[in-house]
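Task: complex structure prediction.
Instruction: return structure tokens for all chains below.
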Amino acid sequence: MMPSSSPTLSPLLLLFLLVLALPGFSAALASPQSPESSQTFVQCIRLAEVLSSEGVNVSQQVELLNRAIRYLELNQPEEAWPLVEEAYAQLSEMYGRLPSVKLRENLERGVVILALAAAPVLFYYFFPRLYAFVWLYNRRSYVVRQSRRERK
Amino acid sequence: MIIDEEVLAVLTALVVVGSALSIAMLIPRKPEPFLAIGLLNERGYIGDYPTLIVAGEPVRLHVFLANHLGRAALLQVRVKLGSRGRIPSNSTPLDAPALQNITVVLEDGKNLTAPVTLRISEPGINLAIVFELWMYNTTSGSWVYTGRWNHLYVNVTAPGVKV
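Output:
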């Protein structure tokens, strides 16, 4: 008589296959020990290069990637790949916001440059008037009297 | 007029110079990009490097890396063993297997001092411990030798041999 294990095994097998199908788990099983063999990692580096060349601060994401590299060196891919995924999610979001961030930065810089360029003209026009106003304001309590000495 | 014309002209000239300097500092510039690698001793300083080591015993050094490429980069230091006259050049890496790799993502303008512990198994005279700097090229998907390297000449004695 055959053992009746096959009906109970099939749900377990199904569960195992489902777990295998999870992207993080399958990535961990594949466990490429060199980080650059992961497409996600390479994408992270590419995004970090682009973002940092545009002046975006990617310190946190670089820290995540370096921690992932350390875990891979310790042969702990199950710890490394979630960090890479997290860095990728953050970098992708930052890359999506890059055009609007760049536009705002350029506008801000343009406004500051215009203000600085206008400063000498404004200074030349307003400073004598402001100085005269302050000069008069400080002497507002002065009383003008006729001098006893007569003009020659 | 309360302010003398000449005084106003001098003050305006000072404002013009200050304004021009501020604008020049605000405009983003692209400086000459470069990578740097340096070799430091066990305590992390320049000099006082080991010259005589025992085969199998650990050799402790530090590698200094600096990124001024204007962007973050994935860098790798490959530690290799060469000999006198058999070291890398600015264009060609040493044709030898890497004993050890140090991989790191380094931001623009940042530097890193990483400890390195090596064990050289075979005795030899005038051996060169070579530290090559490689960079990952995301376009081609491969590591590229940067042409930057350091080396340290050592004599390696067999264990138990008195010098």
